[in-house]
Amino acid sequence: MAFSNLEKALAAVVGLDLLAPGTTRRAATAAVRAIPPLTTRVAAPAARGAGQLALAAARRNPATAVGLAGLGAYQAGVFDPVEEAIQMEVDRRMGVLGSEVQFQAPFDVPTAAKKTKRKVSAYAKGVKAGMKALKASKFSGKPGKLSNAKKAFSTVSKTVSALNKGKKVRRKGGTGVVARAASKIPGITSIKVRKQ
């Protein structure tokens, strides 16, 4: 049968070897019962040593010591009178308000305004359509894949910008593909073809 960590730690303090083969819970219990009870002559130095160890640990980790002391005080019920006094005061003040009156915030809580969806510009729609068309074409790498995305985006944005300004653009190649796709977007001027 396996021993718990607590049992192993207690056995180590007492001086038992629980890891030896053949050690059972019954044998360990019998060995502990065979140990003579502690007398005051033995217990006093042990308690003093434990106190010194606790004091040294508290000096090294004061925040932990304060937290453990506070936890111990809370569990011992030291703070119960304070908690009861606070609860009585809360009950008294709630009784003054009455059950009909509801709590109202001292200030108006603003409600979150609905965000209005930004309108997408014709230029952005043209760039999107141009990128889609260029990716599907054979002019910037294999169809469905762009070989150089930065160069493709540069071509698309320059072409759509030129169309928006009413300038002439090339009719052939990747620029022509972008121009034909972007000119279908409402708000972008139609293609003016530049002579080759």
How would you summarize what this structure contains?
The protein is an all-alpha fold and 196 residues long. The chain has helices at 5-14, 25-34, 40-60, 62-76, 80-97, 122-136, 149-164, 173-182.
Distance between the termini: 92 Å
Overall average pLDDT: 78
Shape verdict:
elongated
Biggest pleated sheet? none
What is the number of E strands? 0
What structural class do the secondary elements suggest?
mainly alpha
Low-confidence parts, pLDDT < 50 over ≥5 residues? none
Number of continuous helical runs: 8
Radius of gyration: 41 Å
What share of residues is helical? Answer: 55-70%
Secondary-structure element series: HHHHHHHH
Kindly describe this structure.
- The protein has 196 residues and is an all-alpha fold.
- It is built from eight helices and no strands.
- It is 59% helix and 0% strand.
Features:
196 residues, single chain, elongated, mainly alpha
Outline the fold blueprint.
Blueprint: H1 5-14, H2 25-34, H3 40-60, H4 62-76, H5 80-97, H6 122-136, H7 149-164, H8 173-182
